């Protein structure tokens, strides 16, 4: 059995509308040496993906919504022997599923940009789709929900997404998905987002594998 180690990155880039922002994002990805990249809030239409393709040596898939909101993208470096079989795009620009094979492994790449509001139905419907997939899953993205109320919010308890949190945790258990960063950092307090409204830091960006 061949073992392949691949650096992955996930980033809510909050818009790729300007050339300056595109250059900043692609430069950062290059410095990270990431080979599979999950981007959220691209604000980039399908007709505009060539602006990224000119700067990325590999495959690019996107599920756009509009030029000023949502949109997710998955980029796979040409050095990764990933054979794509099927692409499922959300018309609302909130998720993108790439099904394929990496050498002898059946693999699903799933990018999520979750709703800001407490919306358990979105995750129920999405995870039902994921449960039908064959093979292993790498789920990445901005869930807009802190899964651990004590450790993932600088303000402590978070009661704003209780129903969403419950649904995500339920499906994580049923599908044997792990919050890989938390598994490796069980007590560490580190955050990925600042909310000016709530004056608090949170970790709402995850890799579930």
Q: How would you sum up this structure, described in words?
A:
The chain folds into two domains: 7-81, Translation Initiation Factor IF3; 114-209, Deoxyribonuclease I, Chain A. It is built from five helices and eleven strands. The protein has helices spanning 19-32, 50-53, 120-131, 162-174, 180-184; strands at 8-12, 36-40, 58-63, 72-77, 82-89, 95-102, 105-113, 136-142, 193-195, 200-202, 205-208. The strands form three sheets. A five-stranded mixed β-sheet has the order 5-6-7-8-11, with no helix packed on it. It has a four-stranded mixed β-sheet with strand order 1-2-4-3, with no helix packed on it. A two-stranded antiparallel sheet has the order 9-10. Helix 3 packs parallel to helix 4 (162-174). It catalyses: Exonucleolytic cleavage in the 3'- to 5'-direction to yield nucleoside 5'-phosphates.
Name the strands of the widest sheet in spatial order. Answer: 5-6-7-8-11
Number of strands: 11
Low-pLDDT runs of 5+ residues are none
Largest β-sheet summary: 5 strands, mixed
The chain-level structural class is: alpha+beta
Question: Strand-and-helix sequence, N→C?
Answer: EHEHEEEEEHEHHEEE
Q: In the CATH hierarchy, what is the class of the largest domain?
A: Alpha Beta
The proportion of strand residues reads 25-35%
> What CATH architecture label of the largest domain applies?
4-Layer Sandwich
- Taking all residues together, what is the mean pLDDT? 92
- How many structural units, i.e. domains? 2
- The number of helical elements comes to 5
InterPro entries: AP_endonuc_1 (IPR004808), Endo/exonu/phosph_ase_sf (IPR036691), Endo/exonuclease/phosphatase (IPR005135)
Family: Belongs to the DNA repair enzymes AP/ExoA family.
GO biological process, one term: base-excision repair
GO molecular function: DNA-(apurinic or apyrimidinic site) endonuclease activity; double-stranded DNA 3'-5' DNA exonuclease activity; metal ion binding; phosphoric diester hydrolase activity
